[in-house]
Structures are given as C-alpha cells and as structure tokens.
Amino acid sequence: MQRTPIQQDLHIHTTWSSGDSSVVPEQTVELVAAIRHACIMGISDHFEHLVDGHYEPYERAVRQAGLRLGMEVNGQAWAQAAIDAASNDYFVFHCYDTDADYRALEALLRTGKPVIVAHPHMLDTNLNRVPAECLVEINNRYIWRCDWRRFYAPFRDRFRFVLSSDAHQPNWLSQTVAQYVAVELGINETILFELEYQ
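Request: output the structure for the sequence above.
Response:
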C-alpha cells in the first residue's frame, strides 16, 4: 500500500535525548529514517543531552541517515553553547517569558539559521516580544492543551508557521492535530528546506 507522507517534520526526538523519559528505546535515528513519514525530516534532540562529547556522534548519526540536523535548545542558558556547536541546520527554541530568552532569540537569529519557537503556549512565551523573523511551531504533542484559537489567531499575519509531531515515540510520528489546527486558523505551513523526496 502506498502512502503519501506529510511535507515536513523538523521536531523529532530520538534516543539521543537520553535524559527525556518520554523517549522510548525504539525511537532511534535509524527507525525514524526508515519510517520516513515526511518528505523533509529533521532530528532535533535536546541540546543539553548532547554536550560532554555526545554532539559529534549525534551529528554523524543524523547526517548519515540523510536527515536534517536540528537541536532543541532549552532557553537562554543553553543558547550560546548551541550557537557555538555551529554545524546544525536549524534551532528549535524554548522561549520562556524572560528578557534573557528574548535576547537569546536575537542571538540565534544572528546565525542566519531558521529559529523555530516551540510550543509557546506551554511556556508562557509572549509572542508580541518574539522577533517576526522567527518561525512559530504548532505541534501535535501540545497544541490541544490550550485555547489555540485565542492564542495563535492574533499572530497569523506576524509569523511564518511550521507544523511538527514533536515525536518521542514511533507512534507519535504524525501531524494530524497540528494540521487540523492550521486549517482552522487559515495558516499555510512554511517549508524550510527543499523537498528531499516525494
């Protein structure tokens, strides 16, 4: 049976996020690459779990699988170290409602790489303070945990949006809810990279 994959999924976790208890042992880079549920795929494991000698092997594993290399950065405390790693294709950023985190967004943007603000409604991110050059994520994991119409609708014209699964397990590799929300809000997803296959 032939299936039609979704266009893009750049927020996927694997066992490289070793400190995240939601990630199951089966969620390997190799399995995600084999499932190939999206035309454009990126792994964005938690950067704080990739320090102390783990980042280079992580980069190698993701690149050898033919996937885009991202990292999920948990606030300003990790932003400069993530910038210094320098080999990634994009950032997924946890922007808490602090002056330091909004400044960290500016620093990440200065790298010239795409910066995706992850689940802002869960982190109390003030989207009025987020630079318009950032992308805002709608993901399957958390979008339903808020009044998404009220939270996101005022910003439809300010930001470009990306959809993601935020998958920590193979059965989470889907964007059904995120796609529904995007349609309801009249949001067209921004595709960040060229299609790798169709």
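The CA atoms of residues 5 and 36 lie 8 Å apart.
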